[in-house]
């Protein structure tokens, strides 16, 4: 019987998250709080011996992974970076303050762009189109390692992780849109013979009651 693990971690708070701006594919670094959140995740993951890790093409996810691996003393494992795990591309909204965007385009329209499954913002991606690039990478590249019984760590983003959770949990688009992915709060999937047998979601020690909306 093959038993593997997949651990999903959303990056810590970034500078744009803190400024309430749409981030998407813009390469924005973690702020001080985000760095601290990544350090807190170390306490939650230091009992898992990882075989390899995956992350996106964006520095906030890469730095979160680097902090975690350094903290748990596993910096020597293989790491694969791929834009398939990038956050949803917010297109023309990138860099805009969310409140200002609501004033310009109308609050209802911005809400539709942010909270619908298949309506993209101008020049950007919907959650559906994000899932269309994340899910093949999950199935073709990540899952085969888990099938071999390996323990895999993925440091990514709110919406790319949503796409993975949707598949593994069999969620509908409506369910996944209501699913919150906390900053640096690991989702730990345990597999047996390629089937998810258990899901554990860990909370950080000083988790603040703040918005966990995707970035």
Structural description of this entry:
The structure is a single chain. With 215 residues, the chain is of the alpha/beta class. It has a single domain, classed as 3-Layer(aba) Sandwich (Rossmann fold), CATH 3.40.50.1240. Helices cover 40% and strands 16% of the residues. It has a 6-stranded mixed sheet with strand order 3-2-4-1-5-6. Strand 5 and strand 6 form a beta hairpin. Helix 2 crosses helix 3 and helix 6 crosses helix 7. The radius of gyration is 17 Å and the shape is globular. The chain starts with a strand and ends in a 14-residue tail after the last strand.
Topology:
Layout: E1 3-10, H1 15-18, H2 32-45, E2 52-55, H3 59-71, E3 79-81, H4 98-105, H5 107-115, H6 127-147, E4 151-156, H7 158-169, H8 173-177, E5 187-192, E6 195-201
Parallel strand pairs: 1-4, 2-3, 2-4
Antiparallel strand pairs: 1-5, 5-6
Helix pairs in contact: 2-3, 4-5, 6-7
Give the strand content: 15-25%
Number of strands: 6
What's the CATH H-level homologous superfamily? Phosphoglycerate mutase-like
Total helical elements: 8
- Which parts are unreliable, with pLDDT below 50 for 5 consecutive residues or more? 208-214
Order of helices and strands: EHHEHEHHHEHHEE
| Widest β-sheet, arrangement of strands | 3-2-4-1-5-6
Overall average pLDDT: 94
Q: Class, according to the CATH hierarchy?
A: Alpha Beta
Rg of Cα set: 17 Å
- Any guess at the CATH architecture? 3-Layer(aba) Sandwich
Largest sheet: 6 strands, mixed
